[in-house]
Amino acid sequence: MSPGVHAVNSSSFSVNRYGKQKDNIMKQDLVKKIPVLIPTAIKTIIGSTLHAATLHVLQGTPGNVSFDLNGLVNARDSYENAKLSLTVTRNTFVLKTQMTRETIRIARDIIKQYLGTEYNSKWDGLGMKDGSIAVPYTAEELYPVALGFKAHFAANPERENIPLQITAVKMQALYDELIAAQTAVLSEEEAVDELKIVRDEKTDRLFKRLRATIEELTLLMGPLDPRWKTFGFNMPGADETPDAPLNVLAVLIGATTAALKWAAAPRAEYYRVWVRVIGVDAEPITVGSPADIDFTLENLPAGSTIEIYVSAVNNGGESQLSEKITITTH
Questions:
Q1: CB burial of residue 99 (10 Å; 0-12, 13-18, 19+)
Q2: I need a labelling partner for 291 at 20 to 30 A (CA). Which of 67, 118, 144, 301 fits?
Q3: What is the third-level CATH fold of 6-20+239-328?
Q4: Coil, strand, or helix at residue 27?
Q5: For 67, how many CA atoms within 13 A lie in the half-sphere containing its CB?
Q6: CA distances from 226 to 61, 229, 232, 239, 317 (A)
Q7: Boundaries of CATH 2.60.40.10 in the chain?
Q8: Strands 270-277 and 6-8
Q9: Coil, strand or helix at 10
Q10: Sign of the dihedral through C-alpha 46, 51, 53, 58
Q11: In a 3-state reduction of DSSP, which class is residue 161?
Q12: Quick check: pTM over 0.70?
């Protein structure tokens, strides 16, 4: 407590912090989400390492949880790495498609001098369709065009342009490379789908392991046994942490005395009042624990600026501090 600060509770402080217990059924925040399961499993391994022997834990042993945790981590990493690889492979396929289209566009412009600048039946042999000589965009549409141009240059080698690599060989190479790029995409998509299935299976397995551990611990420990937290779980007999108090008001009722009042916080069993004297305290310091929603601070330092906060407490824990209230004594 800051020097000279005395707290006066406006009503007698009498509360049984552990008097109100829930049924011995665990209400956990455990969900089948990897960001929740992994840190929970790590805590469970720590708790089990400390207490498994004395509690005779069977489901949640360090070895069992570690095995399932490592299985999930490895499956998750394999899946994520495969997704990154698939992104690169898809980009390569897109570039190959664009390169094939651009090369065919150049080849088409060269052949225009032989077949004409507008569509006619002579273009059909080059894979052009729909009465147009526009170069298609998709790989599926480019495949027959690449083969058509390859056949045209193979039958008319004098129309090839060696410096620009507009040749039958180049058209075949473009076709082969585009097929290979698309095949790689399809192959990696299948691999990613399979790895996702494995990851989900490992997620489900770790989730079931932790749930089984919770059920086992429910039989081995009391609902307010602090070892629950060591295992990474909530105490089944503890209430949900209360909300931070709202509408905190502080009024000077004397030169160095302040009266406090705030709205009741849901699930609160009692409150803590915190003060920080600017220039004296580095952090807020608790000065009282009232059961009611009002409080009196006496003998505050004169001529000081003081920050006041209130938190709510129950056997499940303590809320965040309320919004700051500032007063200045005379």
A1: middle
A2: 301
A3: Immunoglobulin-like (2.60.40)
A4: coil
A5: 9
A6: 18, 6, 11, 14, 12
A7: 6-20+239-328
A8: unpaired
A9: coil
A10: negative
A11: strand
A12: no
